[in-house]
Write a structure and sequence with these properties.
Helix content is about 65%, strand content about 5%. It has about 650 residues and is mainly alpha-helical. The strands form 3 sheets. It has a 3-stranded mixed β-sheet. A 3-stranded antiparallel β-sheet has the order 3-5-4. A two-stranded antiparallel ribbon has the order 7-8.
C-alpha cells in the first residue's frame, strides 16, 4: 500500500509553516498559497467554500479568482503530499462539496489547547511541566503573517488569550511549589506588557511578598492601581484591594506554606540536634511512606527521596540499617509497570547487596528485602522476583507477622503474570489481603485487596462482585484520605460502561473524565499510553477500526501500531510491523496485547503470529481481555480464540 500520506505537522503559533515527518520544512511558495493554508487551518478541519476563500483572499477579486484558488490548492497538495501517485485522491487537503477542507491532525495551536486544558487541576509540578511544553510551542504571534486579516483576527485573539492564561497558570503553580523567586522575572515582564490583567499584578505582588519583598509587593499593587485608573478609568477589583490590605498586615494566609514550614523547621531542627543519623534515616522513610499515599507530587517526591535514603544508609556501612531503610517503604502497589525503572533497579540492587550481609536471625528484615525485590521486579521473566516473593510470604506466615504478610502478598501479586489466565490466583491473593488487613487495621492493604479483586472479578466477568469491591475501596479512601483510589475506581466505572454495551459516545466520555485524573496522579507507569489504548478498545468493541490520527501510545505502541497502519490503509506496512511485534510483557495488559496482536494477524492473514497468539490466549479462554486491568476491555478472549481457530 502507498505511504504517501505520511504525517504533516502544521504551525500557526508564529508565521504559518508546515513540516513533513522528517521535520523538513514544506515549501509553501507565495503569500496566496500560505493564505489558503492558513484559512483552512482556521476552519479546523471543516469545509471552506471556494466563494469564501475568494472573498477572504481579495478585497476586489479578479475575474479568474476561482481558478486561481484551485491553482493554489493544487500547488499546496503537491507540497503537502509529494509522494501521492498521479490521479490518486488527496487525503490531506480534500475537495468536499462546495469547497476544501484540510484534514490536519498535528497543529501546534491544537496541541497548545490540549496541554493547557490538561494542566488545569493537576498537581503543581505536573502543571509547570505541561505549561512549559505549551509555552515552548510559540514562535511568535499567532498567524503572524496574517495579522490584518479579518478571518484570522478572532483566532489570533483566542490563541493570544490562551497564551496569557497559560503564563498565569504556570506562575500560580510555581507559587504553589514554593518557587516564588523563579516566578518573579516572567511575571514582571508579563504584567508590564499587559497592564489591564489584574491577575498578572496579583500574582507578581504575591510572588514578591513570598520572597520577602513586602515593600516591592506594595509598590507593584500601587503601580497597578495607577495604571488601571489612568489607562482604563477603573478602580482595581476586590482581589487586588484585599491583597494590598493583607500585605500591609502580613496575613498568614498570604503564605500558608511558609507558616507551616516555620513550624516544621523548628521541629526538624530539634530532631536534628537530638536524634542520631541512623534513627533519622529510618524516620525519614516512615515519612516518605506516608507521603507516597497522597499521590501526585507527594508520590514522585517520596520515590526520589527513598532512593537517596537507601544510598545514605549504604554509605554508613551498616547492612542491617540499609535493609531496614529499604524494607520500611512498604507502600502498596496495584499497577504492574514501575513508574521509574531506573529507581526500581537501584533499590533492587541495594536489596540484593544487603541480603548476604545480614546477620543470622534477622528473618523479618530478610523477608522485607525479599518482598521489596518481588515488588520492584515487576514483569520479571527471569524468575528472581517470583522466588523472592514466595520466600517472603512463607517467612511471614511462619513468623505470624500480619504487616509483613500483607507486604509479601503484594509482592506475590506482582509475580502472578507468568502466563495469561491467572485472574483466579490473583483473586485469592486479593481475598486474603482484604481479610488480613481488616482484622489488623492495615487500611492501605485493605484498599489494595479490594482493588485487586476489582481487577480479578472483572477479568472473570463477575461485575456484581467487582462493583462491591470498587464501592468498598471508595468508602475506605474517603474515610482515610487515600486520593489515588479514585483514579482506579473512575477508570473501572468507564470499563463497566464499555463491558455493559453502553453507546460509544458515553463510554468515550467516561474515559475522557477518567483520563483527566492521570496527569496529577504521579503514576507515569500507569498513565503512559492509557488514554489512547482506552480509545482503541472502545472502537474495537463497537466494530470500528483503530484511530488513524497520531496518538501517544507509550509502552503499547508495538501492539497498537499494526492496527493503526491498517486503519490508514497501509496493509503492507502493518504486516511488516506485526512481524516485529514481541510477546507482551507479563503484566495486567498481556491478554489485551495478545488480542490486539490476534486482530492484526487475522487481518493480514499472518498464520504463524495467529498460532502464537492462540497458544498464549488459550489459558485465558474464560476471561474478558484487558478487564483484569480494571481499566478497559477488548471483549471476551473466547471470541478472539474462535476467530483465530476459524
Amino acid at each position: 500500500m502507498s505511504s504517501y500520506n505520511r504525517g504533516v505537522r502544521f504551525g500557526v503559533l508564529g508565521p504559518v509553516a508546515a513540516w513533513d515527518d522528517a521535520e523538513n520544512a514544506v515549501g509553501l511558495r507565495g503569500p496566496r498559497h500560505r493564505a489558503v493554508l492558513a484559512r483552512l487551518l482556521v476552519a479546523r478541519r471543516r469545509v471552506v467554500p471556494v466563494g469564501v476563500l475568494v472573498d477572504d483572499l481579495w478585497d476586489d477579486p479578479p475575474p479568474d479568482a476561482v481558478g486561481a484558488v484551485r491553482t493554489f490548492v493544487a500547488a499546496l497538495r503537491r507540497a503537502l503530499e509529494p509522494d501521492r501517485p498521479p490521479r490518486a485522491p488527496a487525503r490531506l487537503l480534500v475537495t468536499e462539496g462546495p469547497g476544501y477542507a484540510l484534514r490536519a491532525d498535528e497543529v501546534d495551536a491544537w496541541r497548545l489547547e490540549r496541554l493547557v486544558g490538561a494542566a488545569a487541576g493537576t498537581a503543581p509540578g505536573e502543571r509547570v511541566a505541561s505549561l512549559d511544553r505549551a509555552l515552548g510551542l510559540w514562535r511568535g504571534p499567532a498567524y503572524a503573517d496574517f495579522a490584518d486579516e479579518d478571518w484570522a483576527r478572532g483566532e489570533r485573539s483566542r490563541l493570544t488569550e490562551l497564551r496569557l492564561h497559560a503564563v498565569e497558570l504556570r506562575a500560580g503553580a510555581l507559587l504553589e511549589l514554593g518557587r516564588a523567586a523563579e516566578a518573579v522575572p516572567d511575571l514582571d515582564a508579563h504584567a508590564a506588557a499587559h497592564p489591564w490583567r489584574e491577575d498578572a499584578w496579583r500574582l507578581l505582588a504575591l510572588a514578591l511578598y513570598r520572597t520577602g519583598r513586602q515593600g516591592d509587593a506594595l509598590a507593584v499593587l500601587r503601580r497597578a492601581k495607577g495604571l488601571l485608573v489612568e489607562q482604563l478609568g477603573i478602580d482595581p477589583g476586590p482581589g487586588l484591594r484585599a491583597l494590598e490590605e493583607d500585605v500591609l498586615r502580613q496575613a498568614d494566609r498570604l503564605d500558608p506554606a511558609g507558616a507551616a514550614e516555620r513550624v516544621w523547621a523548628q521541629a526538624a531542627a530539634a530532631y536534628e540536634r537530638t536524634a542520631p543519623a541512623r534513627a533519622r534515616l529510618e524516620s525519614t522513610v516512615g515519612l516518605l511512606r506516608d507521603l507516597a499515599v497522597t499521590g501526585g507530587d507527594g508520590l514522585l517526591a517520596a520515590r526520589r527521596h527513598r532512593v537517596e535514603a537507601v544510598h545514605a544508609a549504604e554509605e554508613l556501612g551498616d547492612p542491617e540499617l540499609t535493609a531496614r531503610v529499604i524494607g520500611l517503604y512498604d507502600v502498596p502497589a496495584i499497577w504492574t509497570r514501575v513508574d521509574d525503572p531506573g529507581q526500581a533497579a537501584q533499590v533492587v540492587a541495594a536489596a540484593e547487596r544487603a541480603l548476604p550481609a545480614l546477620p543470622a536471625g534477622r528473618d523479618a528484615t530478610r523477608a522485607r528485602l525479599l518482598a521489596t525485590i518481588g515488588l520492584e521486579r515487576r514483569g520479571d521473566r527471569a524468575g528472581r522476583g517470583a522466588r523472592a516473593a514466595r520466600e517472603a510470604v512463607a517467612t511471614a506466615r511462619r513468623l505470624d507477622d500480619p504487616a509483613l504478610l500483607a507486604f509479601a502478598l503484594n509482592a506475590l501479586f506482582m509475580q502472578t503474570f507468568e502466563r495469561a489466565g491467572l485472574a483466579p490466583e490473583r483473586d485469592r491473593i486479593g481475598a486474603e489481603l482484604v481479610g488480613l488487613a481488616a482484622r489488623h487495621g492495615l487500611v492501605t492493604y485493605e484498599v489494595l485487596g479490594h482493588l485487586i479483586r476489582v481487577q480479578a472479578r472483572g477479568a472473570l466477568g463477575d461485575f456484581a462482585a467487582a462493583d462491591r469491591h470498587a464501592a468498598a475501596a471508595d468508602r475506605l479512601a474517603e474515610r482515610h484520605a487515600r486520593p489515588l483510589v479514585e483514579v482506579f475506581t473512575r477508570w473501572y466505572a468507564a470499563l463497566r460502561l464499555a463491558a455493559g454495551g453502553a453507546p460509544e459516545a458515553a463510554t468515550a466520555a467516561a474515559y475522557r473524565d477518567a483520563a483527566a485524573l492521570l496527569p496529577g496522579a504521579g503514576m507515569p507507569g500507569l498513565a503512559a499510553g492509557l488514554p489512547a489504548l482506552a480509545q482503541l478498545s472502545t472502537r474495537l468493541l463497537h466494530g470500528r477500526p483503530a484511530q488513524a490520527e497520531p496518538a501517544e501510545w507509550g509502552p503499547y505502541e508495538p501492539w497498537a501500531r499494526p492496527l493503526v497502519l491498517l486503519a490508514r490503509g497501509r496493509d503492507g506496512e502493518a504486516a511488516a510491523a506485526l512481524r516485529r511485534v514481541p510477546d507482551p510483557p507479563p503484566d495486567l495488559m498481556q491478554e489485551a496485547m495478545w488480542c490486539l496482536t490476534a486482530r492484526a494477524a487475522i487481518a493480514v492473514d499472518d498464520r504463524p503470529t495467529m498460532e502464537r497468539a492462540r497458544g498464549a490466549l488459550v489459558p485465558a479462554a474464560g476471561e474478558l481481555a484487558g478487564a483484569g486491568s480494571g481499566l478497559l476491555t477488548l471483549g471476551p478472549v473466547s471470541r478472539y480464540l474462535d476467530e483465530l481457530t476459524h
